[in-house]
Design a protein that fits this description.
Layout lengths: L6 H6 L1 H64 L5 E7 L2 E7 L6 E10 L2 E10 L4 E8 L3
Antiparallel strand pairs: 1-2, 2-3, 3-4, 4-5
Length: 141
């Protein structure tokens, strides 16, 4: 008995379709896993970048506060201190701008720039008593 195979019988035979389903499933699962890995790795990369930005901003703030403390000390030692100087702190520098003196107060403005991250501080105090009224960071002067 001579049997000829019908090409349609291969398509209908489930043993031949199992291989296609397995390959298709493997491709879909691989794609999903690659998407998850890419998302997680990019999230950790941006998280590292945000942490670095925060550290550099914190260093800039520390420099500006160091200048403010220096200005407060010099003003306490000499009531005619006028500011307008740069202060070296290690390898970095911050600036004390010229002090302003509105009616019984002194306004100290300091600025620091660390690797592109800037901080501008404005400290208002009662001059003879040396009591701080406000200490604030401003976007610019």
């Amino acid at each position: 008995m001579n049997k000829t195979l019908n090409p349609k019988s291969y398509i209908l035979n489930s043993s031949y379709n199992n291989g296609y389903i397995a390959i298709t499933s493997a491709i879909i699962i691989s794609f999903l896993l690659m998407t998850i890995v890419f998302t997680l790795s990019s999230a950790s990369f941006f998280s590292r970048s945000n942490t670095l930005d925060a550290n550099q901003k914190e260093t800039s703030l520390g420099l500006a506060e160091a200048c403010a403390d220096t200005a407060l000390l010099k003003l306490a030692q000499n009531s005619s201190y006028s500011g307008n100087e740069n202060v070296n702190i290690g390898a970095d520098t911050c600036s004390i701008l010229a002090l302003e003196s509105p009616s019984g107060q002194k306004i100290i403005k300091t600025l620091a720039n660390y690797k592109g991250y800037g901080t501008n501080l404005k400290i208002t105090l009662n001059h003879p008593a040396m009591t701080i009224i406000s200490w604030e960071e401003l976007p610019n002067f």
